Amino acid sequence: MLKINNLHVKLEEEEKVILRGVDLTVEAGKVHAIMGPNGSGKSTLSYVLSGRDGYEVTEGSATLDGEELLEMEPEERAAAGLFLAFQYPVEIPGVGNMTFLRTALNAQRKARGEDEVSAGDFLKLVREKAASLKIDADMMKRPVNVGFSGGEKKRNEILQMALLEPKMCILDETDSGLDVDAMKLVSEGVNALRDEGRAFLVITHYQRLLDHIRPDVVHIMANGRIVLTGGPELALEVEKNGYSDILAGAL
Amino acid sequence: MLAQAKLDALSARIAGLHFPSTGWQGKARGAALERLTAMGLPGRRDEYWRYTDPAKLNAAQVRADLNASDIAFQETDALRIVFTDGVFDAEFSDDLTLSGVEITRLADAVTDLHWAAEIYGVLEERGQKPVLRPFAALATAFATDGLLIRVTGKAERPISIVYRSLSDTSDVMLHHCVKLEEGAEVTLLETGDAGPRLLTNLEVDVAPSARFHHVRAQGRSHQRMVNTHIFARVADEALFKSFTASINGVLTRNEAVLDIVGDDAVAHVAGVTVGDGPDFLNDDTVFITHAAERCESRQVFKKVLKNGATGVFQGKILVKPGAQKTDGYQISQSLLLDGDSQFLAKPELEIYADDVKCSHGSTSGAIDETALFYLRSRGVPQRRAQSLLVLAFLAEALAEIEDETLAEDLQLRLESWLDRHED
After folding, report:
1. pLDDT at B1
2. Residues of A in contact with B396 (CB under 8 A)
3. For a surface tag, which of A44, B2, B10, B85 has the fewest beta carbons within 10 Å of its beta carbon?
4. Which of B370, B382, B391 is closest, CB to CB, to A90?
């Protein structure tokens, strides 16, 4: 599904190289986790894949089901089925959460040549998805993420994912700022979306999240590259021994 | 005494203007002309005109091609009163009858016993201190027409004043007076292009417990020039709310002078502005005086400027001695969609009471790129995402309109402007 080939990325404004040849293939139906120390390039990878400004790809490619992602606008990537759950979901005062969700859903459907969802059907759909994530009506009425707690913001990300039904979901440190109960709720939301046709790339510092969202493959990223790939046991090893031992072994 | 040059400029400006000299109007107009002659027309050196060059308003003649006629509030069931090139147009107007309201044309109000004699030019004159407003005196002296509206109860429907223009040289001067009796309530709407140049006064006397709502959508011709003045006196427990949506135009200066004279009164003035191009200038100039206890005032102005457009805000809250428990709020913000546009703001507070709460803020900013990316990453196309953020920026001001239908009408107009002005 997602194929990243020798991806090199630097900051647009300065001569700082962040990704130095990332190779990664995520198959449909699988959950891959990327772990790694601070500054290893995990978040940059997620931003570059979703099309954020400020980065320059100097080499390599990234495709989603064979389509070159890096040449698309962010909205085209979304319509193609890519979704990034933000580490820091953005507050947008003045834009109601419902308006936002409906605009996004219908824009994607339109881009794919599908019919827009009517106001009534949308309301039914959003209510059903929100209830399973314990998002109350009041949160839906408020402006996007404004006044939301850390946990509410992350649940709102998962709600968007549930509504938009992307095929490739990237979760950027979705566990940061969550207490145990909130992490469980968010993980359940993610697990409910797991299916044959959908893949996940879960970026995290900690093994804890992976207790709830069980990965099929774990990668360790360091210094802009994936340096180790293994099964779920790799995450346990990180938890036990820290990164430095593993990295020393890998390099 | 004015310098000869200033006198000459004034003579040129008023030469040929219509001056009804008889009856109560003659007296009021004569006094206004005296005020005007003493102060002369404003110049670039006047502090109050530092950001907005009054030359276009001083010019003796105007000519402009009005390219759009755009009438708002058509979904609202209102009594419609039409002015064509500054003259009441009976053919297109509804009958001037409305339950709870008496309406007279200014040009028809000639009897000496007219109630408007207590307001006409009176509130304007009060508003000449501490800042001179020569164009307001000019409008009082030479207004060709206008409406005198007395509200005795709860008006059955809003009154909508519709301006149209057929001539490319009409230089329109209008003067409206509204008197709300105790407990009365009315909504006054204004929309359309009155002519290449429009100068207006709106004097509003709000008696105790009365409620006045004013919503205005200024014409959207690119070449139009407008200078409006609102002079309001707000009594005990009364409410005054005025909102203006200003789209396009080469020069718009909207002045509001609100005098809160009764305890527990509320006075709000708000507006949104959208402008595109280096010829665009929009100026909101507000002066609110708190002279009573426990009153609330709000000023909320939002301007979206692009391609070298200019926005101006001059807003003052004066809290007089004894006006305790005043709650004053003022915010003026601009969203600059490029590096060429500018926003010039002069917020002022002058407070002579010790137990008051007054806040003010003024900001200029660009579109929030992080928010834009967030929306796009969810599949919202760039232009739509930008429109959503612009409308979000304007939302706090639009929320000042109590009537949702009117607010939605203006919101749609703003959305359509954003669609037309993509680049």
Report:
1. 62
2. 94
3. B2
4. B370
